Amino acid sequence: MKKILVLIFIGLLTTSMLAQDYKFGKVSKAELEEKVYPLDSSANAVVLYKSRRTSFNYLQGEGFQQKTEIHERIKIYNKEGYKWATKLIKYYSPDSGEKENVSKLIAKTYVLENGKIKEYKIQKNQIFTEKKNKYWAQKKITMPNLSDGCIIEWKYDINSPYRGISKVELQYAIPIKKVVCRISIPEYFKYNVKHLGYLEINKKDSYQNDEITLVHKVRTGQVGYNHTSRENNSTETVRLINEVSEIDMENVPAILEEDYVDNINNYKTAIHYELASVKFPNDKLKSYSTSWEAVAKTLYKESDFGGEIEKRNYFKNDLEDLVKGETDETKKALLIFEFVKQKVKWNNYFGLTTDEGVKQAYKKGTGNIADINLMLTAMLQEAGLNAYPVVSSTRNHGIPIFPTLSGLNYVLASAKINGEVVLFDASEKNSKPNILPQRVINWNGLLVGAKGNFDQVSLLNTQKAGVNSTISAKLDADGEINGMCRTKYTNYYEMLYRDVYGSLNEEDLLFKLEEANDNIEIEKIKVQNKKEIYKPLSEMFSFTSEDLVTTSNNKIFVKPMLFNCITENKFKLKSRDYPVDFTTKSSKRYSTSITIPEGYEVESLPENIGIGLPENYGVYKFQVVKVGNKINTISDLSINTVIYPAKYYQELKEFYKLIVKKNAEQVVLKKV
């Protein structure tokens, strides 16, 4: 019996020693001494513990108030992890109306000094309050006394008079060792709940009894002449049930971001709540959940949206002069589109509704995204086109999870021409019909039609973007190569070129192009139609280089594509759970013809290959051949989808691995 008791005691002691203490300030020496995260040695930091508790408390005279308590503890391994030591706490703080607030904010940095734990508490003058816009504010803290291996910790409450529950984040760009969450909701409030991400969420739902005390004022005694009355408080206990969701997860892996993703936050494991309805005892049900139809009708009736489209007098005379005599709808739309681009410049502000209104924007020559594209919509309608606004969300704003106005922040114009919906964005000087800037290429938009009718419109690029480049070069026996490069760009790549290079002078353009092309020396350059966006864009330059060629033992080594090579595989993750977003379908064709020097012959050429992706998502062909004294090479890459599914990620990774390998192979010439 004694042996059993001893074993039990040892077991309990061991469990106690291994158990992590998550109370604020209880940081262990072992945690501070840890040099690397055992489950992910590449992690620059790790969340040791995250706790979130959201509940609703009843306050007399104010109703239910929401409180969210946050506690986070983060281990920082190296300087690359220091960025996690800046915390932004966003909260709703409108210029007028009820506001949220942040309270009980405390934060500390822990370090080892002479083998002992030293803590540094953040001071009040190190906590900054920033007003982001007329609706939102944030607290900003940057933790003090950082060093490699330190631990930072903070806790705070967000108090809100509102019932909207903020997103429950369960995955970061760094690993999370342990995350716990408790959401307690009174039976009067009903929410639509949606899980995002690719990890299984360990969530348990239960119901718990609760009660609130209501205080009523009651007048007692006789009322009237020579009579007195008294006011007493009467209390009433109301019993209710809370729906409780509890989450407990351990060893949550980091979601790693690599190239070709629209917004990584769309794919992190999280839970979204949308308030569906509220029903108090003896009250009618009040519904809050909505549909895209309801969103469209609301916008249509909004004076700063639908009302602005109805305003026409301010541009009528200009519009009549602009389209006078023009009957072709496409030409008429282009005239108006370019007129608005020139007339009103974008002030870099998004928004579903106008700022000062379309009339003021027209007068001042500047406005937000709604000012510009609602104005464009109105002018297209006035000119007789079937035109309506399209609302959407930018990539940075994310994808709307539920039908809601708050999930949208951008406005486009559309017109139905020859039976097809054509999209316009007059905020972007180099955009063309159906060629949109990347910020708004974000799945689907909502076309707000007459009287609030609606339709879903794809915002993905349907027109294939193209690069077609031809190099004609001559190689000499000393390893110097001279040549001419001619390149044509189409559709999205055409817009991108003008955005990057369009405003540069010749000197700066030469520098940028030399830098982008293996530091060749460019002597002369000519760009046709750099600013004339409806004419074909082409670039031509002469170049020379000694760095593209290697000579050794009477042999010359040169890559047949010269500087038009794909040299890096952007797809490096072991696995990827979120889709690859190429922004546009594309065709990149590079042709090279190299004249070899006299006295040399070809010893070896790279082999030709042809490879493809599943379901014809992409094709690559590489062909090299000797014709007389020339080596002619064609590299042809075609991507036939905008969104590439994650299930074929390994195939994509191998596809680009082979392309990079093939582009690195060299032609070998030997002296005769």
UniProtKB/TrEMBL annotation:
Domain spans labelled DUF3857: 66-201
Signal peptide residues on this chain, from the entry's feature table: 1-19
Metal-binding recorded as keyword: no
Ranges where the Transglutaminase-like domain occurs: 321-398
Origin superkingdom: Bacteria
Keywords: Signal
Pfam families, sorted: DUF3857 (PF12969), Transglut_core (PF01841)
KW Nucleotide-binding (keyword) present: no
InterPro entries: DUF3857, Papain-like_cys_pep_sf, Transglutaminase-like
Record's protein name: Transglutaminase-like superfamily protein
Source organism per UniProt: Lutibacter oricola
Native organism taxonomy: Bacteria, Pseudomonadati, Bacteroidota, Flavobacteriia, Flavobacteriales
